[in-house]
Design a protein that fits this description.
The chain is mostly helical. Strands 1-3-2 form a three-stranded antiparallel β-sheet. β2 and β3 form a beta hairpin.
Length: about 240
């Protein structure tokens, strides 16, 4: 399980579901509080990305109403509307009725939320592109985002073929890695060209575990590899 998935699971279980059980309609979560409870004091940007992301909203059954404070800080505050159940378990029309506000724009957003994996893929690609276009390219972040995009895409492909159960089993066994996902897809007659993905994985592992600083060329290569990979299976995301 990735760190982002662990954060989502923790927030759902320890913040949102207890508030839902108490019958509360809204909940406020502060990034620093999550960091303190998870002891992830140096992962505030990742926590803020999770708390502001659509995947969390879909998994936990909330709608982000307001984000305030610094962009990525211990004091960044997120206010959510608590829905009756996770978005992925209901249809778009039922969800629009459940929240009692049914503007067309939001209903269109809901349709995207119903596939949190593809929404997450799109967000990560856009974030990587923004870093590439920045005045100072954050190469390590770009490589990490690109690898996470591959992993999310592979999981989405498995869900499309076999539903959520295989992914849940891999998470329980702590086997959400490149090889098990690709192997499972091959058993489902989906042939994945893995060479570039393995190189990207090794580059990402050097960044995360060895403090390696990729070159700008490395980062641009990673971005192009992931764009090509995603466009092959989900061209509508780009």
């Amino acid at each position: 399980m990735s760190q982002a998935d662990s954060i989502r699971e923790f927030v759902c279980k320890n913040y949102i579901q207890p508030a839902r059980d108490r019958g509360e309609k809204e909940i406020t979560i502060i990034a620093g509080d999550v960091a303190r409870r998870l002891k992830l004091y140096h992962r505030i940007p990742n926590i803020c990305n999770v708390l502001g992301g659509r995947k969390l909203q879909a998994m936990c059954g909330v709608r982000l109403l307001e984000r305030s404070g610094p962009h990525q800080s211990t004091t960044t505050k997120f206010i959510y509307q608590i829905l009756k159940q996770p978005i992925a378990q209901v249809g778009a029309s039922e969800l629009c009725q459940a929240i009692e506000q049914k503007p067309q724009v939001f209903c269109e957003e809901v349709v995207e939320l119903l596939d949190p994996y593809l929404a997450d893929v799109k967000e990560k690609l856009l974030e990587a592109e923004q870093y590439l276009k920045g005045k100072k390219i954050s190469t390590g972040i770009i490589v990490t985002l690109c690898y996470e995009t591959v992993m999310t895409t592979l999981q989405r492909m498995i869900i499309e073929k076999k539903g959520m159960k295989p992914i849940e089993e891999l998470r329980k066994e702590k086997k959400i890695y490149l090889e098990p996902l690709v192997s499972m897809l091959k058993s489902l007659s989906v042939d994945i060209e893995i060479t570039e993905l393995e190189i990207l994985r090794d580059l990402r592992n050097k960044v995360v575990h060895e403090g390696y600083r990729p070159t700008e060329q490395n980062a641009k290569w990673a971005y192009e590899v992931v764009k090509k990979f995603v466009s092959k299976y989900y061209p509508g995301v780009l």
